[in-house]
Amino acid sequence: MTGGTIAEARRKRWWQDGPPLRSLEEAQEYIEDVGICLLFGGAAARYPSLREVSRDESLPRLPSGWGQDLEAMWTWKDTLPVKGGAWLGRYLSGKQTLLSCRLLADLYEFEGEEDDVLSAAGLSEEAGRLAGLLLDEGPMSTRALREAVGVTGKRFDQVLTELGRRLLITNYGVEEGPGWASCVIELTARAFSVPSGGSRAERDALAAARFADTMVEAKPAAVCRAFGWSRERAVAALES
């Protein structure tokens, strides 16, 4: 395909040539169809974006850019993980990403037990401490986690990204409080049914096939970037 043809095919595959999404059910249908999408990505994003397919320019908008369409999408992203409809966390390029339950189960690397976080090798001290708190205390707000773990700002975001890239944690609704509402974080294995059945190689092949279908065209390097796999693993999965 030429670059322009790929862009056009992706726009159609990512539902960007149709009417904007209007409901939670349509949002879940979209995520289940594409398997993986950014929360915010921009019209020229590398991946599908929930914001772009829910954007409705016919609705009134405040000078800040906030409108009814953005408010609806904001509610969907908080509701879907709690209902078991989609995983949400810092995954693609460390940005907020939604995964379908099927793709999440194929990508999940651990046994599917609450204490998976204890067997995850290579976690930083802060990431291990945050995961341990969730294991012991249950879902907690980011406000409470910052205080309990003792890290704030950019470093706290890095810890959430570290655990999100391993799919060990998920956003799990919000907690109201003074000022802005605070995101709630939960262990993925406690919130979703993971992993899927089959061998690791079979699950890799299913995940790679879903990604290639969504991306229209996907080379091993693209799979490596998205899933954090080695080139050998990506090639084997795509060839399967």
TrEMBL record:
It holds the Pfam family AlkZ-rel. InterPro entries: AlkZ-rel. It comes from the Bacteria. This is Winged helix DNA-binding domain-containing protein.
